[in-house]
Amino acid sequence: MQNGSRLLTEMTDRSREVFRRVVEGYLTTGEPVGSRTLTRTMTEQVSAATIRNVMQDLEFLGLLDSPHVSAGRVPTQAGLRLFVDGFLEMGGLAAEDRERIDATLTQNDQDVAVLLDHVGSALSALTRGASIVLAPKHESAPIRHIEFVSLSPERALVVLVFADGQVENRLFLPPPGQTPSSMREAANFLNAMAEGKSLEELRRSIGAEIVQRRQEIDSLARELVESGLAVWENAGLSSERLIVRGRSNLLEATNEADVDRVRTLFDDLERKRDIAEFLELADEGDGVRIFIGSENKLFSLSGSSLVVSPYMNAERKIIGAVGVIGPTRLNYGRVVPIVDYTAQLVGRMVSDRGRG
Where does the record place the Heat-inducible transcription repressor HrcA C-terminal domain (predicted)? Predict the structure, then answer.
């Protein structure tokens, strides 16, 4: 297929209108659009034969396809991409959609994971698609409090409380000879340094700080600090959490032949095989991105489209993403503003709770 922008300039007004009306009709009904249907909606009065000739030209360009002999046309993946890039008129967010999203994100629950779960359910219900919410990594969440708890001479617990209310507990083997006082000293040392810092920031500064304050902290406490930080670094705390909602919506909107492939997609997602790739989809730039069919390897098997947007913290750092998966005939004009608005609100919500 030729370059999209070049095609747009070369298409006549008539071929542009035929193409646009075929795609809009397909996105509305999911059915092929025939020439006789278009004769009733075209701006100029033209015969069905004339429209069929235009359709054939558009099919030759790779923009339309005929699924059955003598049937109407449907857009190809390339045609949908051209429509999204060059013809799609993006409306504003409907007041009803805005109210439902606002209601989800103004709940008083301080648990970010619970709120993001509500966000996923709201997105799925609003779009009738499947929603994906990538929760922020705790690597980027500020720390509120650290505590060491001795369970036995061979076992201790690191309790890490984040500013967003999340709590992480990890068992580790403490250095020999630890006492309750050395554990308290180590915790006090870390808490004095950790306030407002993320784990990543704390790890960067802890080594230098220990060297500088070597005379202020005894060797046992220093070993405990180093041991505890090693536990946090290696225990998988940096892994993201992927929230998937509305799986049944996508299955209902998918042709029977593709149902098994869609199930495979969701099985992969729920096993978190491709979380990093999902974030990379949104991590390449600001704003909403649209992936159609096989344009991205993560969702190509399902024959679905993905509308995804990153969300950022107060420092404009991308910390997660929200998205909607639906059939390729997704109502892009409505879904894009919903995803965009939700991502902005989620970013502000996570930042506000991080400062709490």
Answer: 115-336
